Amino acid sequence: KYTVLTTKHHDGFALWDTKVGSLSAKKSSPAKRDLITPFAEEVRRQGLRLGLYYSLLDWSNENYPNHTRTESRYDIKKDPKRWEKFCKFNFGQMEELNTTFKPDLYWFDGDWEQKAEDWNSAGIIKMLRSTNPDVIVNSRIQGYGDYG
Questions:
Q1: 23: which DSSP letter?
Q2: Helices (DSSP H) in 12-120: which residue ranges?
């Protein structure tokens, strides 16, 4: 038995106290606290597996190329340095989740806006498994997941 909690959806709002970015439950909401830790602790206490949903895309991040599904800020091929900044941000958030919560499962979403090479899907999997070798990953990382 497992459960999956949304850590960050396409709007970019992080439910944990992320050190990578300022849009979070702790820094920019009335909650003023990390909302994932108590949930994760109770999931473990109940003997369940912890799954974390994470949106690869982030429409609120100024370095992400798309502002919405139909509105674009820039082309990643024409501004690779800006795309690199976003990828560093994304990796940073995923690394935080991985080391802080050690989930049993990642449920990625939003992969349709970029190619696997642009997301560095292989690098994401390598990074996650470097400190969490048994983690299971869904298919929404363009061919690098464990199941469909």
A1: -
A2: 25-28, 36-45, 80-101, 116-119
Domain that holds residue 6: 2-137
Q: Is residue 119 part of a domain?
A: yes
Does the residue 20 lie in any domain?
yes
For the chain, report the end-to-end CA distance as a whole number of angstroms.
18
Calpha distance 118→8 (Å, rounded)? 20
Distance separating alpha carbons of residues 31 and 112, to the nearest angstrom: 32
> Which amino acid does the sequence have at 136?
I
Q: What is the pLDDT of residue 148?
A: 63
- Positive or negative: CA dihedral 134, 41, 141, 17: negative
Instruction: Find the mean pLDDT for residues 58-84.
Output: 91
